[in-house]
Write a structure and sequence with these properties.
Keywords: Signal. By secondary structure, the chain is mainly α. The chain is about 75% helix and about 0% strand. The chain contains seven helices and no strands. The chain starts with a helix and ends with a helix. The mean pLDDT is about 85.
Length: about 120
């Protein structure tokens, strides 16, 4: 009986350790595109447009109120990224903000933004 308990305890510990090792894996992605870098604000706008028209227009209002167009081009990519997320965070729930961050890291909306830019030129 004692050996059975030892077996159960060791099995549980091994399974728990295997789960811990499995959960520490990370994902690395890479995207190479033939088009130039697209704006984080434009990509965030595309993400929010999928959430709904009302949120999209609220996001554009927030951009108009809080971003100085003359200074925008002087911001680093990191600052533009953070600002785009900060403005969106005021409109989206936390799980959606996390999804937005993931979407921006994958540049998931970059093709749509580039398509719209090419259509307008």
């Amino acid at each position: 009986m004692e050996k059975l308990w030892i077996f159960i305890i060791l099995s549980t510990a091994l399974l728990k350790g295997a789960d811990t090792l499995r959960s520490k894996k990370s994902v690395i992605t890479s995207l190479r595109a033939k088009w130039p870098h697209t704006s984080f604000i434009a990509e965030t706008s595309e993400f929010i447009a999928q959430e709904g028209d009302v949120l999209f227009w609220r996001y554009l209002d927030a951009i108009a109120e809080k971003i100085n167009v003359d200074e925008w081009s002087t911001y680093s990519d990191a600052k533009q990224h953070d600002l785009a997320i900060r403005l969106a965070a005021g409109l989206l729930e936390e799980p959606r903000v996390n999804l937005l961050k993931f979407s921006l890291s994958l540049r998931a909306h970059s093709p749509a933004v580039q398509l719209f830019q090419e259509v307008t030129t």
